[in-house]
Design a protein that fits this description.
4 strands, 434 Repressor (Amino-terminal Domain), mainly alpha, globular, 3 domains
């Protein structure tokens, strides 16, 4: 008979169930247990086995195993209070998968604190070194941050493709104290989000969107972090029209900052003689800056060189084309098998190096590492082997 696990916090068992929206009856049915047993677990009168806790954590509540041993449930603000620049109707439309991603991100912040003894390891921290307001001129902010990151437009335009550009931008920003993670959202109109913190602000980008879109998301969310508020980037930003006062100004500012950082206005003026209604012109400019066609078309729209109807029609068309091509590539990748490459992409090399380094130095166990990665021990060992092999090439 499997032994019961000691040390589980019954308050967190109850809290996690309620946060996931399950009744005791539903949990009992899922685990094929009597409701009385579930109540006894939550009252601290009994405890599940390791196998049962795994199912509770990973399958039902979608929480890391380590969470159930915390002294107190993590503090979680209501989504509406945390993301103040998202209107109520958009908050209500957030899918359960997106809400789970937000919870996952908060656990990742706790993981970063635990791995780093509560102190951000970056020597320079952009979220502390650069203080801004949404009233600052965008061109001045762009120049300031490019100088801080040590990257010129000439450097940027030498990158061969968007994948290289994403990696470069990710590395540069992570070195300045902001960790960037990826995951695939089922809610495809969510491009990503950011969560602020005094030590570990983080950015999540939707891997289901085009790489060029992911790059834009990084800088939109960077602006949110520098303004000291959490944000969510959506592929369709029409909701901004329904915002009021400061919230509207912030979202407009974040969009303009991302666009002008990636394609500085002083340089873009050299392209405005081209016809924006010809796709090859938009594609040519987008490739030059390693950005999306949407960013370039938006620049033309802001200059009133294309109308709103044309702009929105092209965005819808390009998104449909991308999702169609992505589905074909996904079917091919399932045949080849891409679990571990995906995990490296999702976590990022900086986080993996940090986590494995702590493990090698004896600061955390293999079981703890599995909890940090939210995966089983055998998968951690395979991920380690793949990651080390990739780094040695």
């Amino acid at each position: 008979m499997a032994s019961k696990i000691s040390g589980i916090n019954p308050k967190i068992l109850k809290w996690a169930r309620e946060q996931a929206g399950y009744s005791i009856q539903e949990v009992a049915i899922a685990l094929k247990k009597n409701e009385t047993i579930i109540r006894r677990w939550e009252n601290g009168e009994d405890a599940p086995t390791y196998v049962q806790l795994e199912k509770i954590a990973y399958t039902l509540y979608k929480r890391p195993l380590a969470l159930f041993f915390f002294p107190e449930p993590p503090r979680q603000d209501e989504v509406g209070k945390e993301f103040r620049t998202l209107p109520k109707f958009e908050i209500e439309n957030l899918a359960s998968d997106t809400r789970y991603a937000l919870r996952q991100a908060k656990v990742m912040q706790l993981t970063l604190k635990e791995l780093n003894d509560g102190v951000n390891p970056s020597e320079n921290k952009i979220f502390r070194d650069i203080q801004i307001t949404y009233e600052i001129p965008i061109n001045k902010l762009v120049a300031l941050i490019r100088a801080y990151l040590g990257i010129t437009l000439k450097d940027q335009t030498k990158w061969k493709n968007n994948r290289i550009a994403f990696k470069k931008w990710r590395d540069l920003i992570q070195k300045k104290g902001i960790f960037i993670f990826k995951r695939s959202f089922k809610q495809i109109d969510i491009s990503g989000f950011s969560l602020i913190d005094t030590e570990f602000p983080i950015i999540y980008v939707n891997n289901s969107t085009a790489i060029s879109r992911q790059i834009f998301t990084i800088f939109h969310e960077l602006a949110h972090i520098l303004l000291h508020n959490s944000g969510i980037t959506k592929t369709n930003d029409n909701y901004i029209d329904s915002l009021k006062d400061v919230s509207k100004k912030i979202e407009i500012f974040c969009n303009r900052f991302a666009a002008d950082f990636l394609v500085p206005e002083s340089d873009f003026k050299h392209w405005t003689h081209l016809n924006p209604h010809e796709d090859e012109n938009i594609t040519k400019i987008a490739k030059y800056y390693c950005v999306s066609r949407e960013v370039i078309l938006r620049k033309f729209y802001d200059k009133s060189l294309v109308d709103r109807n044309y702009y929105e029609k092209k965005i819808i068309q390009w998104n449909k084309e991308y999702q169609k091509n992505r589905k074909l590539k996904y079917k091919e990748s399932k045949v080849r098998g891409n679990y571990y490459p995906s995990q490296v992409s999702y976590f990022g090399e900086r986080f993996l190096e940090l986590a494995f380094s702590r493990y090698y130095k004896g600061y955390c166990s293999l079981e703890q590492l599995a909890d940090y990665f939210n995966m089983k021990i055998n998968n951690v060992l395979n991920l380690e082997q793949y990651f080390l092999g990739k780094k040695s090439k």
